[in-house]
Amino acid sequence: MAPEKAGQKLGLEMEMVVVRRGTGASHAVQAYPESLARLRGARGETLALSRLENRVVSARGALADSGLDNGFNLLESALHPVAGGSGGLDRLAQAVYAELNDVQEALAEEDAAILNAGEHPAASLDPDRYAALRVPRPIYEDIVGYRGWLHRVGIDAKAQNSPCTSVPIHEAARAVNVIMALAPAFIALFANSPLECGRVTGRQDNRMTMWDRMFRHARFASDLRLHRMPDRPFEDLGDYFRWMFEGDTNCRSLPLAPAADYKHDTTVFLDGDPSLGRFLRAPSWPGRRADDRQRVDLTPHAAHFEYAQFSNFLDARWRYKLASYCPLEELLAQWSRPGGIEALYESLGVDGYIEGRVPSAVFPDRQLRREAGADIARTAILAPSAMQLGLMRNLSQAEDLIRDYGWLALRTLRGTAIDVALADDLAYQLAADTLAVAEAGLQDQADRHWLAYARYVLQTRRTGADRLLSLWQGAHGDAASRLAAIYPERVLEL
To answer: How far is the C-alpha of 191 from the C-alpha of 214, rounded, in Å?
Structure first.
């Protein structure tokens, strides 16, 4: 058998800013998932609806899990993976555009549309608005009520475009390191959020300040640390998980049942807030149920290790699902050995991918079509996926690039990219070098085609944020008037 290559499967999680047609005002959807299900049902497709507190929050079908992110004003479509290899990005693009066509049609039923922005330019962040818009997921009671996260800093529809690229298990840690370290290039090329609460922020990608603001005053200091690039690359997956689950970290609430959905199922707050590592090494641990606060003793299981994989908010995460579990004692023993997690997970049957978390949502619109042409505009959504795939297929050169710039220097450059994107010469050079390494990793011209938007932004040094600011500053009046003026130029146009 030929060795597994990165990108055997390709996926995408698209987040989308919902607005009222014509005005561009932030819009909370009323019946979007039901409308989507009805639309696809008329074509013979059956969709499964998911409800929370009697509200439908997603419709799962053959193409995607189409629903809501943190609020009713922010859509999320998690595309089901397509086959990679030759033509893989074309297949992903076909799925993306089919999804977006249906999203547009479903939103039209409530006079709504998608705005091309990484966050809504003028939505409120106030607590009352947050309480009204927040999707009623049980996990939010944990992270807001217990851990003290300022979750409302994301309620103005901060939207990312998250490429999901499968990687062989033995390359997973290297892949996380590469996408995390080269995040400034992605931030700069796809910057698209210069406005917040109706004001110019002075940043090209203000959306990326969300995590620092969310965790800065959290109950546990480790929550702030676990979204920041560590001082050195991860040596292997065992190292990655020790960074996340040991030392001064405080375990998130864990499910009562070993197999659980991290966004929906009942969890337990552990007494004393131990690290996950401490909990897993105990016979059992006392705690309280999150739903009714009843006392329980939770018995550790290997599935708790898999469940807790979402505990960090790095710029890149390795996400995975196991086909089977081993005894907890075996997991703990392998965790302490170099390469042990990789060997164990390979034997258990693992399906894993890299989730890139920094590209802001960028969509084709009238302004981009006019300035760059329809062909380039069409590649905007897929460009981050093409870049990530190219880097995953060219890990050695990507690692050389990281060594040339320096790990800690790249960590500093992340802030520069958020503030000024390609206006900084070093950020510009990193973007150019990263794009070149990614392009070298894509062997097929058909795949390289999807880098066109990134190449255009690099050549013009004009980001989505620059384009949005030019419209905003050229308009007149208050925020509502400016929104209405820019709407025709920035509404999604397929």
So the answer is: 20
Give CA–CA dist 115/21, Å, rounded.
10
Sign of the dihedral through C-alpha 363, 401, 345, 242: negative
Q: Three-state DSSP class for 448?
A: helix
First-to-last C-alpha distance (Å) of the chain: 41
Tens of pLDDT, residues 135-175: 999 889 889 999 999 999 999 999 999 999 999 999 999 99
**Predicted local distance difference test score (pLDDT) of residue 107:** 98
Tell me the average pLDDT across 230-251. 97
CA distance 318 to 239: 13
> Are the beta carbons of 289 and 302 closer than 8 angstroms?
no
Note whether 167 and 16 are within 8 A (CB). Answer: no
CATH T-level fold of 9-229+357-490: Creatine Kinase; Chain A, domain 2 (3.30.590)
Amino acid at 100: L
Distances (CA, A) of 424 to 54, 181, 417, 450: 49, 18, 8, 25
Contacts of 437 (CB under 8 A, 6+ apart): 390, 391, 394, 397, 398, 401
Share above pLDDT 90 across residues of the chain, in percent, rounded to a whole number: 94
- Is residue 353 within 8 Å of 172, Cβ to Cβ? no
- Quick: pLDDT tens for 71-94: 999 999 999 999 999 999 999 999
SS3 285: strand
Q: What is the DSSP letter of 433?
A: H
Q: Which of 407, 356, 425, 17 is nearest to 187 (CA)?
A: 356
DSSP secondary structure letter of residue 144: I
Question: If DSSP states are collapsed to H, E and C, what string results for 348-379?
Answer: HCEEEEEEECCCECCCCEHHHHHHHCHHHHHC
Rounded distance between C-alpha atoms, residue 402 and residue 404, angstroms: 5
How far from chain centre, in Å, is Cα 243? Answer: 20
**106 is written with which tokens?**
């479903």
Task: Transcribe 26-62 into DSSP letters.
Answer: B---SSHHHHHHHHHHTTT---EEEEETTEEEEEE-S
Check residue 469 and give its pLDDT: 98
Report how far Cα 216 is from the mean position of its chain's Cα atoms: 20
d(CA 267, CA 316): 25
Predicted local distance difference test score (pLDDT) of residue 1: 54
